[in-house]
Write a structure and sequence with these properties.
With about 325 residues, the chain is of the alpha/beta class.
């Protein structure tokens, strides 16, 4: 005769904190974080972004100060997004090619002051166009593929010449990774990486970002002819396969949390470095829940960021990067 007891008690290893720590399968460190920053014209300028509470645009001098802080916290990489003055936006987005544009000045200043931090630059024309699209549009507003790729090559070379370490095309044009890769090689930038926004969905979660780069009010229509339909997963695998074949060093899935299944499938299928972008709308949702008294910020930040690692991501772009790195240091 024996007492009825479970053959195995999974609660046994959960009973004490030391044991939970010992058995944890996934860990998050500051080295998993990429911090997106918005750049403003001027000096000593900090402009809070209303739809992204806690996030500001900073002028180049203040970006440098932020970069120093991030580096001290062990954050390996920053992502830059410029808020181009309205007077410099045009239908063809030519300011993207200006070697002295806001983006290039920020890259040079940060590389000069903090050479050991990586800089990822977004390649797409939306911060520079008067219509808010990521590329050149025809007379009916359709975004032209091959003509856009030509400009994106120029934008990439401009960023690489300023010192960008990772070129991250977020435009979703066909064929841009291969064209950009060979242009980088031709210009001697063989060690400049490409992180392809490979599976980027046409998403309702980008609203606050468009406020931050000043493109929300300008955008005519939507981005559904180039960004992916959120109902599709197999198409994401095809996008990733193409970008890898064209020479991408790593791939990104975007947005983040609603697309963890995509991140996992990409990792399992291709076994390459996968990054996720926890986008502006996701950040705003967490902050709104905190403001409503419905959630604990610290716990939500650590849980959501760890979930990306558990899904197979090498790292995460997140507006909570500094907050998370501070929590992890404590
Ligand atoms: C631009 C770009 C967008 C984001 C990153 N790069 C917006 C868009 O595609 O409209 C969104 C990031 C975020 O919401 O945090 N090509």
């Amino acid at each position: 005769m024996h007492a009825a007891f479970p053959a195995l008690r999974l609660r046994r290893t959960r009973a004490a904190d030391w044991s939970r720590r010992l058995h944890r399968e996934t860990t998050l460190t500051p080295a998993d974080l990429i911090w997106p920053l918005f750049i403003a014209e001027g000096e000593g300028v900090e402009e809070p972004i209303a739809s992204l509470p806690g996030v500001s645009r900073w002028s180049v001098d203040l970006i440098v100060a932020q970069a120093k802080g991030a580096h001290a916290l062990g954050i390996p990489c920053l992502a830059f997004f410029p808020n181009t003055p309205a007077s410099l936006r045009s239908d063809d987005g030519r300011e993207a090619l200006n070697p002295d544009n806001l983006m290039c000045r920020a890259i040079r200043a940060v590389k000069d002051a903090v050479p050991d931090i990586g800089i990822l630059t977004d390649v797409a024309l939306d911060p520079y166009t008067a219509h808010g699209h990521d590329g050149l549009v025809d007379e009916v507003g359709y975004v032209l593929n091959d003509a856009t790729v030509e400009v994106l090559v120029g934008q990439s070379l401009n960023q690489a010449a300023a010192g960008a370490d990772i070129i991250a095309p977020s435009d979703m044009m066909d064929g841009r990774i291969g064209t950009i890769r060979s242009a980088l090689e031709g210009a001697g930038h063989s060690n400049v990486q490409i992180m392809a926004y490979a599976a980027k969905y046409a998403s309702a979660f980008y609203g606050p970002f468009r406020d931050a780069v000043g493109s929300r009010g300008l955008l005519k229509g939507d981005k559904k002819t180039y960004q992916m339909d959120y109902g599709n997963a197999e198409e994401a695998l095809r996008e990733v396969a193409l970008d890898l074949a064209e020479g991408a060093d790593s791939v990104m899935v975007k947005p983040g949390l609603p697309y963890l299944d995509i991140a996992r499938r990409v990792k399992e299928r291709f076994a390459v470095p996968v990054f996720a972008y926890q986008v502006s709308g996701e950040y705003a949702m967490i902050e709104a829940a905190v403001a409503a008294g419905a959630a604990d910020r610290d716990a939500m930040v650590l849980e959501t960021l760890t979930a990306f690692k558990r899904a197979g991501c090498s790292g995460v772009l997140t507006y909570h990067a500094v907050h998370a790195a501070r929590l992890l240091a404590a």
